[in-house]
Amino acid sequence: MDSPNAAPGRPLSPHLQIYRPMLSMMMSIVHRITGGALYVGTVLVVIWLVSAAAGPSAFATAQAVYGSILGQLVLFFYTWALVHHALGGVRHLIWDVGHGFEPGQRELLYRATLAGSIGLTLLIWIVGYALKGAAG
Fold first, then answer.
1. pLDDT tens for each residue of 5-39
2. DSSP state of 68
3. Does residue 100 contact residue 94 with C-beta atoms inside 8 Å?
4. Which residues, 6+ apart, have CB-to-CB distance to 125 below 8 Å?
5. Mapping DSSP to helix (H, G, I), strand (E, B) and coil, where does residue 6 land?
6. DSSP labels for 38-51?
7. What is the distance between the alpha carbons of residues 80 and 112, in angstroms, rounded to a whole number?
8. Alpha-carbon span 120 to 76, nearest angstrom
């Protein structure tokens, strides 16, 4: 048995207290989380479609749930997850063809993915509400 003051026999693996969070690390984690969230969001889309097929009463119930403040918030974040994950896929496609590996280029791609996902999500929702207002 080693004494408490003895040096360890093998190196310790770095852990989260040693690594400082970097944008690349955070974007990788968020890409995986959004991928998982898309499974849940797809179930919500299926529920909405099934309620539309089930009849006016079921569809009205689904519309009431999805139209509530909580429902709108969930749909907003589903939209962001979808756009963010898609743009992350485009980023990976750029890497797959051999571009964007320089440190500055990688950082630009990460920032563009993040800014693009936020901007496009807001644009989608603004246009959606504008069209809803114009139709009603």
1. 656 677 677 766 777 788 988 999 999 999 999 99
2. S
3. yes
4. 76, 79
5. coil
6. HHHHHHHHHHHHHH
7. 14
8. 11
- Give the total residue count for the chain: 136
Total domain count, the chain: 1
15 part of a folded domain:
no
Residue with the two structure tokens 């119930």: 61
Q: Is 31 annotated among the ligand-binding residues?
A: no
> What residue numbers bound the domain in which 127 lies?
23-135
Q: Is residue 17 one of the residues assigned to a domain?
A: no
The Cα 90–Cα 80 span in angstroms is 15
Question: How much is the pTM?
Answer: 0.82
pLDDT, one tens digit per residue, over 62-106 is: 999 999 999 999 999 999 999 999 999 999 999 999 999 999 999
